[in-house]
Amino acid sequence: MTLEARVEAALSEVRPFLERDGGGIELVRIEEPRAFVRLLGACHGCSVNQTTLKLGVENSIRSHAPEIHEVIALEHGA
Predict the structure, then answer these.
(1) What fold, for 3-74?
(2) What is the Cα Rg of the chain in Å?
(3) How far apart are CA 63 and CA 78, in angstroms?
(4) CA torsion 64→70→71→75, rounded to 10°?
(5) pTM of the model
(6) Are 15 and 64 within 8 A, CB to CB?
(7) What does each C-alpha distance from 24 to 13, 32, 36, 39, 51 come to in angstroms?
(8) Per-residue exposure over 33-50, b if at least 16 CB sit within 10 Å of its own CB, e if not
(9) Is residue 35 pLDDT above 90, yes or no?
(10) Domain spans of the chain?
């Protein structure tokens, strides 16, 4: 399985939790050892989005793709 596919699989695990709260996430690009994502909906700009990113998304991605060391949230248009 490709690195991108493994990162997408990790995002598929956390996406239902984000969607339940009116949010979402999309993979923008991978530049090893970083994955760049965009938080959507209620997650974009919310006060806990960095906590969500670090605790939920980053942990899930690392479990699927240990070569990714950091997940960076991009703003819309970036």
Answers:
(1) GMP Synthetase; Chain A, domain 3 (3.30.300)
(2) 11
(3) 26
(4) -160
(5) 0.84
(6) no
(7) 12, 23, 14, 6, 15
(8) eebbbbbbeebeeeeebe
(9) yes
(10) 3-74
